[in-house]
Write a structure and sequence with these properties.
By secondary structure, this protein is α+β, with helices and mostly antiparallel strands. It has a seven-stranded mixed sheet, with helices on both faces. The chain starts with 5 loop residues before the first helix and ends in a 6-residue tail after the last helix.
């Protein structure tokens, strides 16, 4: 993610979350040394096929620094943010545009977060997810996250509880075997997100 992406990220947030971070928060996060934010884009000059949800996907997961490509020619389809803490990567936010959900973009972003955690020698990943968000919880469980706790009234917009989820040691052989298999399945099913 770079500063040019913030307006589109805010659009996705508006679709996805009842309460939003202000733009200034994202500007600060882009300067935060422990934060890593990624976006996945669609090239705007590739017209959508009739009825297709994922045409022309540009699968580069861009980092906060050194992005490739012309941001003005891209439409942000989804984003994820993680903090690299002492031994723990914490997923702080993830969202996908409404019309691009359920086609593998969220999963691709989770994969990018896990890859980054591995790259930075983190031991585990953690996150909070709305208790009512069954689809997200199923995705996280698929990638080895366990439900380990509940944060009562965590979400201030409606006082909904958050489910605290964490992975086992991501450097362990069992986790890496699972992760590699899931990543290969995702790549085979969604090649446009990996080109």
């Amino acid at each position: 993610m770079n500063a040019d992406d913030i307006a589109q990220v805010m659009d996705i947030e508006r679709e996805s979350f009842p309460s939003m971070w202000p733009q200034t928060a994202y500007r600060r996060e882009l300067q935060n040394k422990v934060a890593r934010y990624f976006v996945i884009n669609e090239l705007r000059d590739e017209p959508a096929a009739e009825g297709a949800a994922s045409p022309g996907l540009w699968s580069a997961i861009r980092r906060i620094v050194g992005s490739d490509g012309d941001a003005a020619a891209e439409r942000v389809l989804g984003f994820i943010g993680i903090w690299l803490l002492v031994g723990e990567a914490h997923i702080v936010t993830v969202a996908v545009r409404d019309e691009y959900r359920r086609i593998g973009i969220g999963e691709r972003l989770v994969i990018a977060a896990i890859e980054t955690a591995l790259e930075y020698d983190q031991e585990v990943l953690t996150l909070e997810v709305r208790r009512s968000n069954d689809a997200a919880q199923l995705l996280y469980v698929k990638y080895g996250f366990d439900r380990v706790g509940l944060r009562k009234r965590y979400y201030t917009d409606n006082n909904e509880d958050a489910v605290l989820m964490t992975t086992p040691d991501i450097g362990s052989g069992g986790f890496l075997t699972l992760f590699d298999a899931l990543k290969q399945q995702h790549r085979a099913k969604n090649p446009d997100l990996w080109s």
